[in-house]
Amino acid sequence: MEPKHSAGLIKSVSLFLLWFVLFIPVYPSLIYTWLNNSNDSHGMLVPLISAYLIWQKRSDLQKTPVSVNGWGVVILCISLILYMLSIAGYMVFVSRSMIVFSLIGLVLFNFGTAIFSLIKFPLFYLLFMIPVPVSIYGIVAFPLQLFATRVSELLLHFVSIPVYREGNMLYFAQTQLEVAEACSGLRSMTAFIMLSFLFAYMMKTRCWPRIAIILSAIPMALFANILRVTGTGILAHFYGSRVARGFLHEFSGLAVFALGFVLLFVEYLLLNRSESER
User: Fold this and answer.
1) Band of the pLDDT at 204, cuts 50, 70, 90?
2) Domain hosting residue 235, numbered range
3) pTM here?
4) Measured distance CA(233)–CA(231) in Å, rounded
């Protein structure tokens, strides 16, 4: 190994280790949120996906010359300043977001524009690991709760199940069912959008199919969540509200995620095929 190359490698490793250590105060709460908040559990998959996407580019990265980009220093410095201010002001979302933006600045400064261009999607994709702020979640979740409850009421009437709706409550003859905040569909929506961006990146097509699959993530998430609420309502009508709690509730959430993955994957295959036949 040439001395110049060895010195560059040591510098890069040292910088990235320093970057990692600098954000140690943020990691415990972030990991805790992933493990204990079902709305953000998909976040733990994002770093693994990003790492795999970068690993796929390893042959191209080895052939690409390393350079230095001054804008990387600017992005890195701004990110670190915002990080320190957010730690002091306990702005959790900002401090977590600066993990990604400081990494982008560090890569751009240390390796240059050419290498950054190869891995810019996996780097920006890391933003999906940042949990949605509670304030935004509360604003968006309630209208989605009401929407899911209204549509589920109509579907339950369609299959001849008597039900009365009041707000986000569904009342049956023998029991009642609350469409809680966790059942609003926002969890599904954020996970579906995360998957849609991944499928769009994997497409070797023009721009519009990628836009189409990203935009389709929202109605697919709403559709899958309404099926979940309606199915739970049907079971609650026949077997009582206990079916909406415990294992079945968690399993239905996983089933919705699996359904969304299948729907997006099928759409990805169809869009890719239609473009290849042109």
Assistant:
1) confident
2) 135-276
3) 0.83
4) 5
